[in-house]
């Protein structure tokens, strides 16, 4: 199948991608040392990868650019101002809710982040301290991230759609000195007040931040706690605190922690370093996304997710691009034409979002009529990631937009695409259902259950041979034992992505979905355990299982099966409704748990493990083999009919 400017065929051999990919694996030190030239260092790296030093330290994952020093903030801002880009727009806030537009030039972003950095320091934040950011899609989120980077503090951004329990878990894990938040976020149906959520989280958390800095937005004025809370306006008042200069940090120091859903109910804090991250992102913006300084990027995600960290904030700014901070939905704010309005208004070259957003636009505007009349000549490509891109959506977008639709596969842990068509290196044909070829630095292998490599087109576990390239996780906040026991445990020498898939004879990757209990809702990642922890907290629920089932819009939606306690008196429908509300209150509405069924029992193995995968496959209309270890087959048979509804 081919559409618009997309085609298929094998042209990987002998091209720029193949050469770069091979070199990156054969001589990673030389490849990444060369890439490191795009970064301004304080102390230049002499080695990119030093296996002996890594082995001596016993690090579970490699440290890149040991011995080198830099400032990520300097690379994102100051050096562009020095080079004459001070008046160029760095961030354009496009609020689809309010109609507001606000531009911060590189010089203004530098000024504001330096002043906030000074203020954070005055509030006691030192190099290495954590600052938790619980913010909506406003430019202040970018200012705050860069302010932390400026003084070597570690930012921990929490997605604004997470409710109290998730926020509390991240507060306790990160132990921030300061929390930076806003009075509210905006959603199509409501204004979300952040302070009550933060107070509820702090009431549950054991750790208490010394201070909270609160951005008062016009829609809501938050109540502040005297002595603890200060407003954004007062801390940034000229003269309030001396602006901070960039602090020199080691390339291996942590820049940020971003929590994601692991295999347990507890969030896993992915740690990203300064040096490897800066090099990898600057490289990827140019070679995978084909962007140059001055280009405009609109990544319709959220700063709370890894896509937002990498391609709303750091990637575009490291490369001297203009980033459009889109506060809104692809549809309904006010209509399915708002993204095209933004493309025209800001001259967007690359639009990046999730497949769900395209499916939502298509459902409302099947002929893309709302794009007519908007000049989209600046648009060079649409990038999609976060979940599987179905061939039908890919073809529709390509036909209607007339630009390449570039699927790219990655995860919070990797920080940048594992596989992507490298448009800045070489125009490779795109294949439907495939995020194209592995990015340089990634040695993708498909392994069977015994750890043997399978042949082209055969399915297995998608794994990455170590070392992972720069910019990927360097560890998990609080310790790497979990990493050792999970992603690095199954196959020695490989990182297990948790995705199943295949690689074809042309080297194109196919990602079929998670092999673990991660539920991917509209490109947002939740673990079954995280959702089950909220469900089981209901006093009438004795046992539960949450599985992600296929959904035409969101890719997957969670579905819960619950067994009630013997003492439960409320009618099952009432408990089900309360469970739905509980998940909204504990995890967040964004988890989109809408379907809860009360059942008599859950199917389990003889060792007591719930057969989630079998449940999911039956709900998706498949006919999986029943595991021989099942304890009581009749329990599963009794659920078949219900699951298919
Ligand atoms: N703060 C508070 N609540 C939030 C939130 C936030 N930042 N983000 C989402 N929510 C809430 C929504 O208000 C909604 O609540 P409701 O059930 O009371 O209506 C719920 O969480 C589900 O959110 P969402 O999935 O955004 O549903 P929607 O109906 O508002 O929009 C889509 C549907 C398809 C437009 C939307 O899911 C979408 O844009 N998806 C693309 C996702 C994306 O860009 N992912 C990026 C990952 S790379
Ligand atoms: P997250 O860490 O939230 O970014 O989620 C990562 C997971 O999303 C991956 O492990 C995949 O399961 C899924 N994912 C991301 N991008 C793609 C893609 N292009 N195709 C298929 N699945 C994807």
TrEMBL record:
<protein>
    <submittedName>
        <fullName>AMP-binding protein</fullName>
    </submittedName>
</protein>
<dbReference type="InterPro" id="IPR042099">
    <property type="entry name" value="ANL_N_sf"/>
</dbReference>
<dbReference type="InterPro" id="IPR045851">
    <property type="entry name" value="AMP-bd_C_sf"/>
</dbReference>
<dbReference type="Pfam" id="PF13193">
    <property type="entry name" value="AMP-binding_C"/>
</dbReference>
<dbReference type="InterPro" id="IPR032387">
    <property type="entry name" value="ACAS_N"/>
</dbReference>
<feature type="domain" description="AMP-binding enzyme C-terminal">
    <location>
        <begin position="531"/>
        <end position="609"/>
    </location>
</feature>
<dbReference type="Pfam" id="PF16177">
    <property type="entry name" value="ACAS_N"/>
</dbReference>
<dbReference type="InterPro" id="IPR020845">
    <property type="entry name" value="AMP-binding_CS"/>
</dbReference>
<dbReference type="Pfam" id="PF00501">
    <property type="entry name" value="AMP-binding"/>
</dbReference>
<dbReference type="InterPro" id="IPR025110">
    <property type="entry name" value="AMP-bd_C"/>
</dbReference>
<dbReference type="InterPro" id="IPR000873">
    <property type="entry name" value="AMP-dep_synth/lig_dom"/>
</dbReference>
<comment type="similarity">
    <text>Belongs to the ATP-dependent AMP-binding enzyme family.</text>
</comment>
<feature type="domain" description="Acetyl-coenzyme A synthetase N-terminal">
    <location>
        <begin position="18"/>
        <end position="76"/>
    </location>
</feature>
<feature type="domain" description="AMP-dependent synthetase/ligase">
    <location>
        <begin position="81"/>
        <end position="466"/>
    </location>
</feature>
């Amino acid at each position: 199948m081919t559409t618009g400017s997309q085609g298929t065929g094998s042209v990987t051999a002998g091209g720029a991608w193949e050469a770069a990919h091979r070199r990156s694996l054969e001589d990673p030190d030389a490849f990444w040392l060369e890439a490191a030239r795009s970064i301004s260092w304080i102390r230049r790296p002499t080695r990119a990868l030093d296996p002996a030093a890594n082995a001596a330290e016993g690090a579970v994952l490699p440290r890149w650019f040991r011995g080198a020093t830099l400032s990520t903030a300097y690379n994102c801002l100051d050096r562009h101002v020095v080079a004459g880009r001070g008046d160029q727009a760095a961030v354009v806030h496009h609020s689809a809710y309010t109609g507001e537009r606000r531009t911060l030039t590189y010089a203004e972003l530098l000024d504001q982040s330096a002043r906030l950095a000074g203020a954070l320091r005055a509030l006691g934040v030192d190099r290495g301290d954590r600052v938790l950011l619980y913010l909506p899609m406003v430019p202040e989120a970018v200012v705050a991230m860069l302010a932390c980077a400026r003084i070597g503090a570690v930012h921990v951004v929490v997605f604004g759609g997470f409710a109290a329990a998730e926020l509390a878990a991240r507060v306790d894990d990160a132990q921030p000195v300061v929390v930076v938040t806003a009075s509210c976020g905006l959603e199509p149906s409501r204004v979300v007040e952040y302070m009550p959520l933060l107070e509820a989280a702090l009431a549950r958390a054991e750790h208490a931040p010394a201070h909270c800095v609160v951005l008062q937005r016009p829609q809501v004025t938050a109540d502040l706690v005297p002595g603890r809370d200060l407003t954004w306006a007062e801390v940034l008042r000229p003269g309030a605190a001396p602006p901070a200069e960039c602090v020199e940090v080691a390339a291996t120091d942590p820049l940020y922690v971003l929590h994601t859903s692991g295999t347990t109910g507890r969030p896993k804090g992915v740690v990203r370093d300064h040096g490897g991250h800066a090099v990898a992102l600057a490289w990827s913006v140019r070679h995978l996304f084909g962007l140059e300084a001055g280009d405009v990027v609109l990544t319709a995600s959220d700063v709370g997710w890894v896509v937002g960290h990498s391609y709303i904030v750091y990637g575009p700014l490291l490369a001297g691009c203009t980033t459009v901070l889109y506060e809104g939905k692809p549809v309904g704010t006010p209509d399915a034409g708002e993204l095209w309005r933004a493309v025209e208004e800001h001259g967007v070259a690359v639009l990046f979002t999730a497949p769900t957003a395209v499916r939502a636009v298509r459902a409302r505007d099947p002929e893309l009529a709302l794009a007519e009349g908007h000049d989209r000549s600046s648009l060079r490509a649409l990038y999609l990631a976060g979940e599987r891109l179905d061939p039908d959506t890919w073809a529709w977008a390509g036909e209607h937009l007339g630009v390449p639709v570039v699927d790219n596969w990655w995860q919070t842990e990797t920080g940048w695409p594992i596989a992507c068509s490298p448009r800045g290196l070489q125009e490779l044909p795109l294949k439907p259902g495939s995020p194209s070829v592995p990015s340089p630095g990634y040695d993708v292998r498909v392994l069977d259950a015994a750890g043997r490599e399978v042949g082209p087109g055969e399915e297995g576990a998608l794994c990455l041979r170590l070392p992972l390239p720069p910019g990927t996780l360097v560890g998990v906040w609080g310790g790497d034992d979990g990493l050792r026991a999970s992603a690095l445990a199954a196959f020695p020498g490989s990182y297990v992505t948790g995705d199943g898939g295949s690689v074809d004879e042309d080297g194109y990757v196919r990602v079929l979905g998670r092999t673990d209990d991660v539920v991917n809702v509209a490109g947002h990642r939740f673990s079954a355990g995280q959702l089950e922890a909220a469900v089981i907290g209901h006093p009438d629920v004795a046992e539960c299982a949450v599985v992600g089932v296929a959904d035409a819009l969101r890719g997957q939606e969670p579905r819960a099966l619950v067994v009630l306690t013997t003492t439960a008196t409320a009618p099952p429908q009432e408990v089900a409704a309360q469970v739905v509300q509980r998940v909204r209150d504990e995890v967040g509405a964004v988890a989109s748990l809408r379907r809860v069924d009360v059942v008599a029992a859950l199917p389990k193995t003889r060792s007591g493990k719930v057969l989630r995968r079998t449940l999911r496959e039956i709900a998706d209309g498949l006919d999986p083999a029943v595991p021989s270890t099942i304890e009581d087959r009749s329990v599963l048979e009794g659920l078949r009919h219900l699951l298919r509804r």
